[in-house]
Amino acid sequence: MAKEIKTIGVLTSGGDAPGMNAAIRAVVRKAIANGVKVKGIKKGYQGLLNEEIIDLEKWSVADIIQRGGTILGTARCSEFRTEEGQDKGVEICRRHGIDGLIVIGGDGSYRGAQALSKKGINTIGIPGTIDLDITCTEYTIGFDTAINTAMDAIDKVRDTSSSHERCSIIEVMGRNAGYIALWCGVANGAEDILLPEKYDYNEQNIINNIINNRKRGKTHHIIINAEGIGHSTSMARRIEAATGIETRATILGYMQRGGNPTCKDRFYASIMGAYAADILCEGKTNRVVGYQHGEFQDFDIEEALAMEKSISEYQYEVSKALSM
Ligand code: ADP
Ligand code: F6P
Hints:
Blueprint: E1 7-12, H1 20-33, E2 37-41, H2 44-49, E3 53-56, H3 83-95, E4 100-105, H4 107-118, E5 122-127, H5 143-164, E6 167-172, H6 179-187, E7 192-194, H7 203-215, E8 221-226, H8 232-243, E9 247-251, H9 263-281, E10 287-292, E11 295-300, H10 301-306, H11 313-322
Parallel strand pairs: 1-2, 1-4, 4-5, 5-10, 6-8, 6-9, 7-8
Antiparallel strand pairs: 2-3, 10-11
Helix pairs in contact: 1-9, 5-6, 7-8
The structure holds adenosine-5'-diphosphate and 6-O-phosphono-beta-D-fructofuranose (F6P).
Adenosine-5'-diphosphate is lined by residues 13-15, 45, 76-77, 80-81, 105-109, 111-112, 115, 129.
C-alpha cells in the first residue's frame, strides 16, 4: 500500500531557470488543495543539509508566477553526492515530518532525488533547466524564456554587425547541449551554428564560409556558438587574422538564465508543478515529470536518466541549408 503523505517539501537545485517560481507556486497550491502541508527547502540539497526549511502557505507563493529566478534559491552541493550526505538529508526530512519531496532541476538533481527515494523519502523530479537537455521530456522549464532572451539579443548584435560589416561570434549557453544554439541559430538566421554535439573543430571551414559569403556580398556573418565549444574571444581573434574581416565576440552569459518567464514557461511550469504534487500525494516515488507527444507524463528516474537525447539530424541539416 502506498505510504500516506501528510507533508511534502519542495526545492530547486542546480542552475536556475525562469519558470521555477511558477512551478513552486503550482506545487504549493495543488498540494494544499489535496490536503497536504508544504515546506520549502532553501538553496537545494545544501539548504536541506543546513536545515533551511520554511513553511509555505498558499499566500507564500502569491505574486511570484511572473518572476524569474527562484524564491527558494538554488545551489550545487557536493556533500549530497555522498552516502553520508544523503543519510543526513533523510534524517532531516524525517525530523521535519517531510514524507515526500519535489525536486525542480536537471539530471544531476534527479540523481539526488533517486538516492532519497531509495532511502525511503518519496521523491518526484520536475525538469527545470534552460538547456533542454533532459531526455524524457520534449520541454524543460526555462528553455522558452532563454531562447527568446537570446534571440532578441542576437537580433541587436546583428544590426551593428551589418552596419560595420563585421563578423560576430555570439556565444549562447549550453555547455554540453546545443539546443539553445540550434534554436537561436535557426530563428536568427545565423550563417554558422556550432553545437557541442556536432562540432568537428574544423575552424578552416568557418573561415572559408566567411570569405565566400563576403565575396557574395554579405555584409555580416553571424556565428552562434554554444558555450561548450572553445573560447569565442580567441576564436574571434584567429578568424579576424585569417579573413582580414573585423570579428567580435559577444558572450550572452547569465542574462539567458534570468528575466520574467514567457507564457509558455509559466504554463508548462504550472502544469508540471501541479502534476508532480498530485502524483507525490498519491504515493508515487522515484518519478520525473515529462512532456511527450502532447501529454504530461511521468517516468521512472532510472529509466529517464538512461534515455539518450540527440540533436535531430533533420533539424541540423535544415539549419545548414537555410544559412546558405
Ligand atoms: P542539474 O540538476 O542542473 O543537472 P547539477 O548536475 O549541478 O545540476 O546537480 C545539482 C545537484 O544535485 C548537485 O549539486 C548535487 O547536490 C546533486 N547531485 C548531482 N549528482 C548527484 C548524484 N550522483 N548523487 C546525489 N546527488 C547528486
Ligand atoms: O543552466 C544551464 C547552464 O546554463 C549551462 O548551459 C551552463 O553550462 C551552466 O548552467 C553554467 O552554470 P553555473 O555557471 O551556474 O555553474
